[in-house]
Amino acid sequence: MATTTVTPKGDERLVEASLLKRLLSRPELGAAAGAILVWLIFALAAPTGFLSLRGAASYLEVSAQLGILAVAVSLLMIAGEFDLSIGSLVGFAGATTAILASEFGIPLYVGAIVALVLSLVIGFFNGYLVIKTKLPSFIITLGSLFIIRGLTIGLTRLITGRTQVGGLDDFAGYAFMRSLFAIDIPIAGVGFSISIFWWLLLGAIATWVLLRTQIGNWIFGSGGAPQAARQVGVPVDKVKVGLFMTTAFAAWLLATIQVITVKSADTLRGEQQEFFAIIAVVIGGTLLTGGYGSAIGAVLGALIFGMVKQGLVFAGVDADWFFVFMGAMLVIAVLVNNYIRRRAEAARK
Amino acid sequence: MKNFKSLALLLMSLALVAFLSACGGTPEVEKVETVEVEEAEPVEEAAEVEVETEAEEEPAAAAEEPAEEEAMEEEAVAEEPAEEEAMAEEAAPAAQTDRSDIRIVVVSHGQASDPFWSVVQNGVQQAGEDMGVTVEYQAPQTFDMVAMSQLIDAAVASNPNGLVVSIPDASALEDSIRAAVDAGIPVVSMNSGSDVAKDFGILVHVGQTEYEAGLGGGQRMAEAGVTNALCINQEVGNVALDLRCQGFTDAIEEAGGTVEVIAVELADPIDSQQRISAAIVSNNPDGILTLGPTGAAPALAALEEDGLLGEIQLGTFDLSPEVLEAVRDGNMLFAIDQQQYIQGYLPIVLLTLYNTNLNTIANDVLMTGPGFVTQDTAAQVIDLSAAGTR
Q1: How far apart are alpha carbons B186 and B161 in whole angstroms?
Q2: A147 touches chain B (CB under 8 A)
Q3: What CATH number is given for B210-337+373-386 in this structure?
Q4: What's the ipTM?
Q5: Residue B37 has pLDDT above 70, yes or no
Q6: B336 three-state secondary structure
Q7: DSSP state, B218?
Q8: Which chain A residue lies closest to B137 (C-alpha atoms)?
Q9: Best interface-test mutation with B: which of A37, A260, A264 has the largest number of B CBs within 10 A?
């Protein structure tokens, strides 16, 4: 992507840096190297499945589903906040859409819009509470993680008596929703999920906003030096509330994709996704402390995650060992990331 | 062999990190050597895999051009009159009689922390050894059907000679399983999914039908005089477990009693115990049915703590050492046994025979349960359960 070579505004703006040096200064460089490393490991360890088109479609879909969350989370984390409630929100938004269709006969696309509005309201409240109470967003959204999950299970069981709502393909508007959110695009005879497109689109928009717009500067400012940002007139509170609504939007998008793809909603959907999204963002070079990071990095972090997750299946690693490899791969990716960044910073000086 | 492969992969990745960090300082000859030595093993294996799949790649390529595939099918039909299309497609693998070339992937929804599923996994591994075939066992880390469907997709992409799946949520897994069947991979389902297996094009389902098992449990409870029961669900969202509770409820209600469903946390026994205790206080039940050992253990603990062992009739689905001891000692009325060991074992045998000999089973469902373990039989089963096979 062309935007990768652009130096952030305000960063050594008087120095005319060479293209290579500017490239080295990007936070996502380490993640790119990590992605290539992980790809190489699995290309060697499991060439049959991993290198096939079907294999690529498989790990790209997994990456896309996490990546949609990770891109939004990266923006929020650059602004210095966490949102732990998105995993629960995935379950909530999906269940809302499905219940509206199955119990009240509302077409799926209307149900999805209602779910979107509710998700945005929840996102707004997350942000509003963080701003008003001045409590860490970690605590506030940890609370909403449980509240939303509990509400989803409680309400779903209250209304349907079950915890799953299935057979969505029989309801009005399914075909239309499928063409938007769940269709497979055939490339060389293998179906690639349209969620991959959504993932890349979100990544591109987020990158554009971060690097080319005033809002992008506000986001960096809100996370890096909120006090200074306020003093120069950045609406830090509005930026943060807006970003909480962005993560809620991403959760809704993922929920809709999942619900339409698998034709059922489950109250447990999205469990632990909030942590995996944060991990993907950190792999992508965004600092936990805020003020530094990139959306492309989040896209690459999700790619690494998807490749590791599915690659382990191709490599024939038993499920017993999954977490060991998951953890090892993540640490390795971050180590490589940090190492490259250190080298890059040294080269820049 | 499997663990060895895993270790090799881990070593290789660690070696790469060592290599990268070594580049940061002064390059040391020693470290570079380590990298070469440790990389050698996986490369060998990679070669092995290539050989294994050369034969299979052809049908995969043919799938892109339907005309060719049909031609192949007709050839196969000419050789051996097969009734089903799926069989005809499998003509190529069927010719492969060397069992060590056969690779079967199992994708279940069983979480590694559940003792029930570790018995299934033991069955899978023992069958792999007995049949002399390669088996791989996969499961999502939480009860997440999206993750499970992605695991199935990945398994299909690796083009195995057979696929074993459990189907706890048919609509969520349908597309992935149908894709496997369409790709010409013989699929056997086990444990859950008896109602949809045939429709999906699955060769046979190995398991127990949940509703009937719950009904049987309820009838036994009703015989013992239970009128006010709890159904403890440790995996809320699993349709099979909902069906068990449903069958149990119907049987108790038929006898004039009532049932309340209580949800507990699979991974947190202490919390589960407290919730069951609380439910006992508020509902004052005379019978409890748990849907697995992860529910039975905290239920037993709750009864013991409240001094109600033997007073409240306790029954459970599935066995574990502590469940069996409780049944032997009369603290538990019965344990419903679906014999999950053979749910892991038999699909491997069936798929091996299908690959080498094109054998199929005529029944849609191979019933492995329900059987009831009571005080009379518990002692014998205890030894087997401790060995991880019951």
Answers
A1: 7
A2: no
A3: 3.40.50.2300
A4: 0.71
A5: no
A6: strand
A7: H
A8: A318
A9: A264
Using a CB–CB cutoff of 8 Å, tell me whether B159 touches chain A: yes
Under 8 Å between Cβ of B273 and B302: yes
Q: How far apart are CA A115 and CA A94, in angstroms?
A: 8
Q: How far apart are CA B199 and CA B162, in angstroms?
A: 18
Q: What is the DSSP string of B44-81?
A: HHHHHHHHHHHHHHHHHHHHHSHHHHHHHHHHHHHHS-
Task: Tell me the per-residue pLDDT of A59-68, one tens digit each, with 9 for 90 and over.
Answer: 999 999 999 9
**Does the pLDDT of residue B252 top 80, yes or no?**
yes
A107: which residues sit within 8 A by CB, 6+ positions away? Answer: A101, A171, A172, A173
Instruction: Specify the pTM.
Output: 0.71
Please report, for the domain that includes residue A317, its CATH number.
1.10.3470
pLDDT reported for residue A300? 93
Chain A partners within 8 Å of B144 (Cβ): 268-269, 271
Question: Which of A41, A313, A339 is the closest to B158 by Cβ?
Answer: A313
Fold (topology level) of B96-208+340-359: Rossmann fold (3.40.50)
Nearest to A278 by CA among A73, A75, A38: A73
Distance CA A37, CA A332 (A): 10
From the list B115, B163, B139, B173, the residue with the least C-alpha distance to B292 is: B115
Q: Tell me, what's the pLDDT at A12?
A: 54
Beta-carbon contacts of A56 under 8 Å, excluding residues fewer than 6 positions away, are A190
In degrees and rounded to multiples of 5, residue B171 shows phi and psi of -70, -30
User: Mean pLDDT in chain A?
Assistant: 87
* Residues A47, B136, B297: CA angle, nearest 5 degrees: 145
List the structure tokens of B177. Answer: 């399983």
The string of pLDDT tens digits covering residues B157-192 is 888 999 999 998 888 899 999 999 999 999 999 998
Contact B333, B313 (CB under 8 A): yes
Residues from chain A that touch B3, judged by Cβ atoms under 8 A, are 318, 321
pLDDT digits over B303-355, tens only?
888 888 888 999 999 887 788 889 999 899 999 988 889 999 999 999 999 99
Q: Is B63 on the interface with A (CB under 8 A)?
A: yes
Interacting residues of A167 by C-beta distance below 8 A, sequence separation 6+: A102, A263, A264, B171
Place of tokens 């965004």: A286
CA quadruple B237, B238, B242, B245: dihedral sign: negative
Could you please report the per-residue DSSP string of A202-213?
HHHHHHHHHHHS
> Considering its fold, how many domains does chain A have in total?
1
Report residue B268 CA to chain centroid gap.
21
Domain parsing of chain B, residue ranges: 2-64, 96-208+340-359, 210-337+373-386
Residues B194, B196, B201, B203, Cα dihedral to 10°: 0
Question: Using CB atoms and an 8 Å cut-off, which of residues 247-286 of chain A contact chain B?
Answer: 258, 261-264, 266-269, 271-272
* 8 A C-beta contact, residue B225 and residue B257: no
Nearest CA in chain A to B64: A189
How far apart are alpha carbons A248 and B210 in whole angstroms?
Answer: 38
User: CA A323 to CA B33: how far, in whole Å?
Assistant: 29
Q: How far is CA B15 from CA A40, A180, B40, B347, in A?
A: 13, 44, 12, 38
Quote the pLDDT of residue B325: 87
DSSP string, B358-381: ----SSSEEE---EEE-HHHHHHH
Identify which of B5, B17, B143 has the shortest CB distance to residue A316: B5
**Cβ A264–B157 below 8 Å, yes or no?**
no
Give the list of residues 6+ apart from residue B327 with CB closer than 8 angstroms, or none: B333, B334, B335, B373, B374, B375, B378
Supply the range of the domain harboring residue A150.
2-348
B96-208+340-359 against B210-337+373-386: fold identical: yes
**Hey, is A266 helix, strand or coil?**
strand
